[in-house]
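task queued by scheduler; priority normal; single chain, no ligands, no partner chains; default sampling; output format set to structure tokens
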Amino acid sequence: MRRTPTGPGRRGGFTLVELLVVITIIAILFALTSAAVVKAMGKADEVKLRNEISQLAGAVQAFKTEFQAPYLPDRLVLPPGMDPTGESAQYVSSLWPRIDKNTLGNSTGTFTVNGQNFTIYSYWGLPSNAAVTLQGHQSLVFFLGGARDSSGTPIGFSSLQNDPMNKTGSGGAATRKGPYYEFPANRLVSISGSPFPSFQDVFGVQPYVYFSSKRGGNDYTTPSTGIKPFVTSITYPNASSASSKSGATSFRFASPNGFQIISAGKDGVFGTGLDDWPGATIVITTPPSNNPGGATTTGYDDVANFHPTFLGIAQ
């Protein structure tokens, strides 16, 4: 009968200590791998976000080129003739020179355009007999998307100079201008019940906000319910030590001579104000260098078309 060797050259298996060491190493490797995966996913989201903002910015430029427009406004009253400042009617008339006063909304009766009957409210897509003011996040979708079909899908504007909201054309389908951006239907959302949608960013928490390059009051003029915090401006850290827009060119993150498209980032929180026109109050906040995005920091991961890094990260 052979004996099983039991000398030093033979082991019966892992000891408890060895097993614990192996488990610890596996746990460390898993943690490192998970962190790398999470970081890579976050970076992928940021890349997707920046690409989308770049595409929107390109669409704004395409719109301006098509209509030879100096800017795309971030405030529009519909019907345009009901804007007490006169800016909305003036702007719409510059895009479609043959549009008449009835179509602009200077009358409350019915009228006919290219064989179709409208009221000033039904023509501009308003469900009730009341004027609506579009803020920048809605204005961006309206001008880049154009008129909407019965399902709410943006289909661009008619090429008819007197009938931009025409959906069929006289005697057949009208030649379209736009849409300049293909908005995914599932990310067009209504804020506070507005009949005009906003476009949510890739995180689906907040819409992209838009500020035009025009000065003189054609900006966000009232608090926008549903977008918090948000009053008349947005400010980011390290902008300037100035207290008014008189030093506009010294602002690190503002784009004083161009339009601005801004995402609130993954946290869905905008900065407390981006000062980009005369008279706006600047709020300076600086995120902790060792804790960007901490409890005291707002807008730290905001992304815009005019700056290559997160707006709220001190550099």
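post-processing summary
- Confidence is low (pLDDT under 50) at residues 215-253, 273-296.
- The chain has two domains: 69-187, 200-310.
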